Amino acid sequence: MERKRAGIPESVKKLYSTDATVIDSGKIYIPEKVYFPVTEDEVVSIIRSAYRKKVPLYFRGGGTGMTGGCIVSKPKAWVISSEKLIKIIDLNLTDEYVDVESGVIPDELNSYLNQYNYFYPPAPASSGFSTIGGNISENSNGLNVFKYGTTGDWVREIRFITGTGEKMKLGGKFRKSVAGYSLKDLIIGSEGTLGFIYSAKLSIMKIPEAVSGFMIFFDSSLEGIRFVKYILEIGLKPSIFEYIDNYSIKSVINYTNFEVPQNTKSAVILKFEGLITEVKYIEIFIKEFLSNFELCGHLNTSSSDGFKEIMEFRKAISPALFSIERGKVNEDLVIPISLLEDYFKFIKTLERKYKMKIAVFGHIGFGNLHTNIMFDPGKKDQVKTIQMLLDELFMFVIDNGGSISGEHGIGITKKAYLKKEVGNVTYNIFKDIKKIFDPRGIINPGKMF
Ligand SMILES: Cc1cc2nc3c(=O)[nH]c(=O)nc-3n(C[C@H](O)[C@H](O)[C@H](O)COP(=O)(O)OP(=O)(O)OC[C@H]3O[C@@H](n4cnc5c(N)ncnc54)[C@H](O)[C@@H]3O)c2cc1C
Prior knowledge:
Largest sheet: 7 strands, antiparallel
CATH topology of the largest domain: Uridine Diphospho-n-acetylenolpyruvylglucosamine Reductase, domain 3
Shape: globular
Bound molecules: flavin-adenine dinucleotide
Number of strands: 17
CATH architecture of the largest domain: 2-Layer Sandwich
Helix content: 25-40%
CATH class of the largest domain: Alpha Beta
Distance between the termini: 33 Å
Number of helices: 14
Structural class: alpha+beta
């Protein structure tokens, strides 16, 4: 039997109509029904019923998406929540995978795996309240993306239900296969537009033996970038490789008790993980080559707890930026490493032109930089000009071979730019694929395309 929360009040249903997207996302509707299935067959039955009646369908995990993927943009829609799909179905330590339902929360999965000295690495910063289904749909990544990659790199199999209610098993428990088109990879990052993820088999790995963490403070933004390029040139593979700009540093200092050396204008955080001997060697090596850079100082720790303190600084950035302005639009752009200096110069040009501050921090190893446009929501002229600023920013990234999203996806907020990034032919193939999985166009209508 299909389960719905019978007679749930409109005020509760309203909670299932939005997500964590902060910009004005157009008309939002309270869903007609919200379903909380507990089996795969229940999901099938709800989707088949929606297919027959041509009802708009929205899938929802933790609702932490930042591009409007869970925003109910059509009237009389149904929402399927994975809130009750929280079983850990199987754990296989020999083949190193865990099989989970899509509503499992990554932190809870990791607490479970830690008992066996294992972990699932690609948990995003929202790992305490997002879900595996949402993480797969957005192909999310955590701060350790440079070494461990994105969610997709850890997905072996997906059990999936299409827009007509067909069950599919994509991939398998194996570690390697080249049998046919990899449809599993099509579902990863498809932002809930092709069907519902019921469960997934995910690769897991042993918790590394040793860690070494650094936070290095530079006297200019360019010196920080020079250091980043050096790390990449010599081929080191830190798990965490983060860049923090001057605005972000100053706002964390204003907002918390952290102190940084005087004259710091940028900082880089590095974390190395692996065997004790390997990590020790890298630590000595880094300490030696730091003398080649204009530093204001550095911190180093070999303990996980010590590194947690460094990460407290990094995690404080997002909330601390509100001490600069009350409003913030956080874009997750990707820029080729060879163009980092040009990107930072371009940001300064935009700041001067639009008279707004732009704070930049993030996963520098991949050139995936959170670019935060700070604005005053009370100033109507600023609110109006943000879209013009974003337009220039996105076009700079696209024209220079970067990407409009390295983390949060397209959703409704960036769909105008998707065609520009991928080109007409690819864009039309995307639309054809959507029709195969969702012939009546009922799933997440209006998202991504
Ligand atoms: C404070 C904060 C920190 C964040 N940090 C990061 C970060 O470090 N890295 C990062 O990549 N992102 C981050 N995000 C963005 C967000 O957490 C991720 O996109 C996350 O993967 C969304 O998961 P969710 O379960 O909340 O998905 P939801 O927001 O519920 O849904 C996201 C999309 O997935 C679809 N979906 C959800 N479940 C399913 C399912 N079972 N089957 C099919 N489709 C489904 C939805 O329809 C929607 O389109 C952050 C967000 C917040 C608010």
